[in-house]
Amino acid sequence: MAGHWTKQDEITSVRAKRAIAYGDKMAEIVNGTTDEGWDALLPLIDAERFVRRGNERNQEMDWLTYRAMLDQWDGQSGLYEKHLFRASEAGNVVYLDLDERSVATDGKESTLRSVSIYEFDEADRIVAVDVCMGFHQPH
C-alpha cells in the first residue's frame, strides 16, 4: 500500500503507546489469544468519565453501554486485525489512522479505514474515544 506508515516500534509517546495498547488488547480479546475479558481495558481508561462516539457525534456511549456493544461484536466476530498507518498527538489527544479487517463467524469479511481519536486525562487515562469509519467494503 502506498503512503508513509508509522513504525510502531519508533513511537515514544506514552499516550500514543496507550492508545495502541488499547486496540491491541481489543484484538487479543476478540481473537481469543487471551483469556481476559473487556475489563482488561480498565487500567487504560477512566471508566467513570469514559465516552465512546461513532461517526455521528451524538451517538455517545458510556463505558457500560460500550462494553455491552463490545460483547455483541465479540460474539459475532471470529477475527479482527488492524494495521497502523499513522499516529500523531496534539496536547491530550492521540490520533490513530488504521486499516481494519474483521471476519465474522459466518465467514463474511469486512474491511474499513478508521481514524480513532483518543482523549486523555491528566493521569494519562483514556476518557473518550471517537471512531470515524469509512470505505466499508464487505466481501
Task: Tell me what the structure shows.
- This protein is of the alpha+beta class.
- It is 23% helix and 41% strand.
- It is built from 2 helices and 6 strands.
- A 6-stranded mixed β-sheet has the order 2-1-6-5-4-3, with helices on one face.
- It is globular, with a radius of gyration of 15 Å.
Question: TL;DR of this structure?
Answer:
The protein has 139 residues and is of the alpha+beta class. The protein contains two helices and six strands, in the order αββαββββ.
Structure characteristics:
41% strand; 2 helices; 6-stranded mixed β-sheet; alpha+beta; 23% helix; 139 residues
What percentage of residues falls in helices of 4 or more residues?
Answer: 10-25%
Distance between the termini: 19 Å
Low-confidence runs of at least 5 consecutive residues? none
Note the beta-strand portion. 35-45%
DSSP summary, beta strand count: 6
Tell me the strand order in the biggest sheet: 2-1-6-5-4-3
Briefly note the structural class of the backbone. alpha+beta
Sheet with the most strands, sense and barrel status: 6 strands, mixed
Please, how many helices?
Answer: 2
